[in-house]
Amino acid sequence: MSSETTESTMRLKGDLSLLSVVLFGLAYISPGIVVTMFGVVAATSGGAAPTAFAVATLAMLLTGLSYAKMARAVPGAGSVYTYARKMLDSRIGFLSGWAMLLDYFFIPMVGWLITAIYFHAQFPEIPKWVWLIVSVGITTAINVFGMKLADRVNKVLMFIALGSLVLFATLCVVFLGKHGSSAPATDALWNSGTSIGAVTAAAAIAAYSFLGFDAVSTLGEEARGGARTIGRGIIGCVIAAGAIFIVLSFVMQLVHPGAKFADVDAAAYHLKVQVGGTTYAEIINFVTIAGSIASCIALQASAARLMYVMGRDSALPKAVFGNLSGKTGTPVLNLLLTAAAGVIAMKLDLTTATSFINFGAFLGFTLVNVCVIAHLVRERGHGRTPHLFSYLVMPAIGAAVSLYLLTKLGHVALQIGGIWLAIGVVYLAVLTKGFRRPAPEMTFDDDTAARDRVTA
After folding, report:
1. How far is Cα 272 from Cα 248, in angstroms, rounded to an integer?
2. pTM for the full predicted model
3. 452, 448, 445: which is closest to 3 by C-alpha?
4. Three-class DSSP category at 223
5. What is the largest CA-CA distance in the chain?
6. Residue 364 burial by CB count (10 A; 0-12/13-18/19+): exposed, middle or buried?
7. CA distance 455 to 100
8. Alpha helix (H) ranges present in 88-223?
């Protein structure tokens, strides 16, 4: 087999438009999470949930801009793993990929568990573990048959899910038109119970709602327009998610002013009953399930593709992780491995399952901002002068915010994340003969990569 043929078979096929890329990122984020998290964010912020979500949006936009810059500078799949490998060092790249793997590999498990919880709430006579197996099976089958099918299914499910959010917002507005709000509209943004400290703490919680926008960067080889489409898709995803979060939390805060709830975790359900009745609250559960399945498709696809890129580069065992199916062109074995990990959720509750996936995400956010600064240093070394505010000040702020969010994680998350990172250091030491050799990597000198750099 010629090297040209080998390279083409090991590259993922590009079929995704800008709209598909943005919807993929929104599916990963799952915009409906704003409804689920409203009670916690409102209670923490002192009844100013939309302000907290606005602060979180600005914070995530800083890192989103850094991802967009890196997508243009380093076209291809692989997310922060690829960026750190190219801009900093192959060994740092490996460790960043290893840290992100903790997030990417197990976050589909959380998505499947949430879907199973929704199913079980609607049909309590069927055990939750049955719904878990069904959810894992459906999304794995869709992803095995390739991104074209996953893209089509994702679009349908996401439009249904987004439609349900529009309906919920409309019902809130109709309710306010009939009954009004017990507090001035400005109180939803800032009131006597609000403080800078409270809003900042709530924004740190609200920022978790954005986890997943970086998954768009793993589609670098599958997007039409390459790096330009990925950069726009990342920014579009953050802005779209932020707009949804701010608008929905604003109308919800008007319906329920203040920061006191009978049950913070169940605040979303009680609001649905308040504005639409019990029947509406039960019916909308089906729509929530549709959005959750769409999210699971995106979650699993990103995890499998990151594992594939690391396997292709021999950072993970290539024979296991670095292969694409000859029939479907997808990393089938990686998809099956993530599906197997999802079954673990049968033994976990949602709190435990979500406690350790954010470590890799915030560490990755920090590193991608550092990569932008490293890119600035390299460019100035070659006589080019990128804008200092854009390539130094903004990513420095983004890195500081990401580190702050990392410190806000619970002790369990920090401990598990630290252990996972320590295992990665040991594996890297073995892989590089005591750090004396670069971590293995594979590069492609093909026309596609060159063309992406030109069009970027």
Report:
1. 12
2. 0.71
3. 445
4. strand
5. 72
6. buried
7. 28
8. 90-122, 128-144, 147-179, 196-206
